[in-house]
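User: Could you go from structure to sequence for me? I need the amino acid at each position, not a summary. Structure tokens:
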């Protein structure tokens, strides 16, 4: 009686490791000019958003204690 070395459900796994295809995949499609412009526009928008948030957020990060603010204002000097 003939006996298999491996069970039937996993026989395709062993065969797939030995299989080599002689068909090469098609080359990747090159991006067109509108696609390149769109990608660069999205990139510039992201960079501009980060720069703008940094510029608008820096005054909020300031501690508010500056050495030249120790003097009184001119309105309080007249009292």
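Assistant: Here is the amino acid at each position, in order:
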């Amino acid at each position: 009686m003939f006996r298999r070395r491996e069970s039937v459900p996993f026989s395709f796994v062993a065969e797939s490791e030995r299989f080599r295809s002689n068909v090469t995949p098609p080359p990747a499609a090159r991006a067109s000019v509108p696609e390149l412009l769109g990608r660069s526009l999205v990139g510039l928008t992201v960079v501009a958003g980060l720069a703008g948030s940094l510029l608008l957020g820096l005054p909020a990060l300031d501690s508010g204690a500056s050495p030249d603010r120790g003097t009184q204002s001119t309105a309080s000097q007249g009292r």
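One structural detail worth keeping in mind: The two ends are 116 Å apart (CA to CA).
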